[in-house]
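It is worth pausing here to work through a concrete case rather than discussing structure prediction in the abstract. The textbook approach is simple: state the sequence, then state the predicted structure, then interpret. We follow exactly that order.
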Amino acid sequence: MKNYIDWGAGPRASQNLILAAKANAAFNGKFSPDIEDVKAVAIGILRHRVVKNYKADAEGISIEKIIDSLL
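Step two, the predicted structure:
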């Protein structure tokens, strides 16, 4: 997927990913988040922070597919 990304997520994205995973865990009655909580919120957090390049557009690869492959 490295060939399809122009700009990746920064430090604020990882901070927000952790906060959202914690909120998701609390919402589901858990005391601490696990990888499933991170996966549940990853697309919503990273969708607008990762920028795909022209090659990804030309091949019809969506940003959601890129994030899914990274998870």
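Step three, interpretation. The longest strand covers residues 5-7. The two ends are 11 Å apart (CA to CA).
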